[in-house]
Write a structure and sequence with these properties.
Helix content of chain A: 40-55%
Number of helices of chain A: 5
Largest sheet of chain A: 2 strands, antiparallel
Number of domains of chain B: 1
Strand order of the largest sheet of chain A: 1-2
Radius of gyration of chain A: 12 Å
Number of strands of chain B: 0
Structural class of chain A: mainly alpha
Radius of gyration of chain B: 20 Å
CATH architecture of chain A: Orthogonal Bundle
Number of helices of chain B: 6
Distance between the termini of chain A: 13 Å
Shape of chain A: globular
Oligomer: heterodimer
Number of domains of chain A: 1
Order of helices and strands of chain B: HHHHHH
């Protein structure tokens, strides 16, 4: 999928751990891991909103479009 | 009153158990038919009106019968595995799609064999061919529905 989630970069910038972010956003650490490892197929607006709020950033800081990119693990 | 009573006595788990038990009964029936295959073929050759005659007809019927039995065992095995997964609560998984595809192919191949037998040797076999062909189509449609459901479930599982 050519959409890359730069969650780990923002987490490093904000110096926030996965457990704490998952708790603040209100999703499970497993789902956060899916998002972080670019395995997600879709992101709900509510999750994106909560992530932007927790990391004090814009959606564009988290999502990046790479034309022709194959980022992320192959779908199961 | 009756439906409530039935709800207590009958449930999804028991329905699956009954289906699985029937699979074993049918497998036993197939095994019995395999054992008495030569006897059945002798009866058909001597008592039924065949389109062709000759010493090779009996052998051909026997071979086709055993091929159909092999397909039936393969189909029953896949059906049993499908039921085992359903018992475990695994409904929309790739394994079930594979099982349904195998079952569909078994029915289709049995239809082809029966059609050949019906056209060349014994016309009533065409009825079996039509039934098996319809079954193959129905199972194929169910398989396609399952495949789409698996894809939708995967997408949902990976929606955060």
């Amino acid at each position: 999928m050519p959409i890359v989630v730069n969650l780990d970069i923002m987490m490093a910038r904000r110096r926030i751990g996965a457990g704490e972010l998952a708790e603040r956003v209100g999703i499970t650490p497993a789902n956060l891991s899916i998002l972080k490892n670019n395995k997600a197929k879709a992101v709900r607006f509510s999750t994106l909103e909560a992530l932007c709020k927790a990391l004090d950033c814009q959606p564009a800081d988290l999502l990046e479009y790479i034309p022709g990119g194959t980022a992320g693990a192959p779908h199961p | 009153m009756a439906p409530k009573f039935l709800d207590k006595v009958w449930n999804e788990k028991r329905s699956l158990m009954l289906t699985d038990a029937l699979v074993f009964v049918i497998a036993a029936g197939c095994a019995a038919a395999c054992v008495s295959g030569p006897r059945i073929v002798r009866y058909v050759v001597h008592e039924r009106p065949l389109t062709v005659s000759g010493p090779a007809v009996g052998a051909a019927l026997l071979v086709i019968g055993y091929l159909c039995a092999a397909l039936a065992f393969w189909m029953l095995y896949d059906l049993h595995r499908l039921l085992l997964r359903l018992k475990k609560g695994e409904v929309f998984v790739a394994g079930n799609v594979t099982s349904l595809r195998h079952i569909s192919w078994c029915c289709a191949l049995a239809a082809v064999l029966s059609l050949l037998t019906g056209v060349v040797i014994y016309p009533p076999y065409t009825v079996i061919a039509v039934a098996a062909g319809f079954m193959a189509l129905i199972v194929r449609a169910v398989k396609n529905a399952f495949a789409q459901a698996v894809a939708m479930k995967n997408e949902l599982d990976y929606t955060v």
